[in-house]
Design a protein that fits this description.
single chain; mainly alpha
C-alpha cells in the first residue's frame, strides 16, 4: 500500500469511500451512451487541468516565500498569513491532482478489463486479433501516461513538506532572525519546485498526446 503522507492520507479515505460506487456509475453512464473510454478521456483532461492549477499554486507559494525571505520592513505577520494561505492552497491543489489520477486509473482498469473480456465474444478471428492489437497498444500508451502522472505526483510531497516546515517554523518564530534561518532551505525548495514544474509539464504534454491518440482511435 502506498505510504500515507501529508498529501495522500485524505485521498486514500476518499478513494475507499468511492470505490464501491464506481461500477454503478459506469453502468449508469453506459446506459445513456457515455462509455468508459469517453470517461477516461474526460478524466485525463481533468487531471491535466488540476496539474496546471497546482503549478500555479506552487509557483505562488514560492514567490510569496521569496518575498518573505527578502522582507525589508513592514508587517511580517501579514506576510506570514499570505504564505500560510498559499501553502493551504497548494496542499488542496495537490490533493485534487492525486484524486484525479486515482480516478483516471480506476476507469482505465475498468475499461481494459471490459475490453479484454469482450475479446472472447468474437467469432471472427481477424477482428479479434485487430481488437486485441488495439487493446495492447492502448494499454501501453496508458501505462506510459500513468507513470508520467505518478512521477510528477511524487514530486509534490517533498515540496509540500518543505513548505509546511517553513510555515510551521515561522508561525512560532515570526521575526527577522527566523526568516534568516530558513534561507538555507530556500535554495533546496526552489530546486524541488523546478523539478516538480518540469515533471508536471511532461505529464501535461503526455496527457495531451494520449487524448489526441484516443480521439483518433475513436
Amino acid at each position: 500500500m502506498k505510504k500515507l503522507t501529508l498529501l495522500s492520507a485524505p485521498i486514500l479515505a476518499l478513494s475507499l469511500a468511492l470505490s464501491g460506487c464506481q461500477s454503478a456509475y459506469y453502468s449508469a453512464m453506459e446506459s445513456v451512451g457515455v462509455h468508459k473510454r469517453d470517461i477516461l478521456v474526460d478524466r485525463v483532461e481533468a487531471t491535466k487541468e488540476s496539474q496546471e492549477e497546482s503549478q500555479e499554486e506552487f509557483q505562488s507559494a514560492l514567490e510569496r516565500l521569496t518575498t518573505l525571505i527578502n522582507f525589508d520592513g513592514g508587517d511580517v505577520q501579514a506576510a506570514y498569513d499570505q504564505l500560510n494561505d498559499d501553502y493551504e492552497s497548494s496542499l488542496a491543489a495537490a490533493n485534487d491532482v492525486t484524486n484525479n489520477i486515482n480516478k483516471v486509473e480506476d476507469v482505465a482498469e475498468a475499461l481494459f478489463e471490459e475490453w479484454n473480456d469482450e475479446l472472447e465474444q468474437y467469432s471472427n478471428a481477424s477482428l479479434k486479433r485487430e481488437s486485441n492489437k488495439k487493446l495492447t497498444a492502448t494499454k501501453r500508451d496508458f501505462d506510459k501516461l500513468l507513470r508520467s502522472m505518478r512521477n510528477a505526483e511524487s514530486k509534490m510531497e517533498p515540496v509540500l513538506s518543505s513548505l509546511h516546515d517553513n510555515v510551521l517554523y515561522l508561525k512560532h518564530n515570526l521575526n527577522a532572525q527566523a526568516v534568516s534561518a530558513i534561507q538555507g532551505e530556500f535554495t533546496n525548495l526552489k530546486r524541488d519546485i523546478k523539478v516538480l514544474m518540469d515533471d508536471m509539464n511532461k505529464s501535461i504534454a503526455d496527457s495531451n498526446k494520449f487524448i489526441e491518440q484516443m480521439s483518433k482511435a475513436g
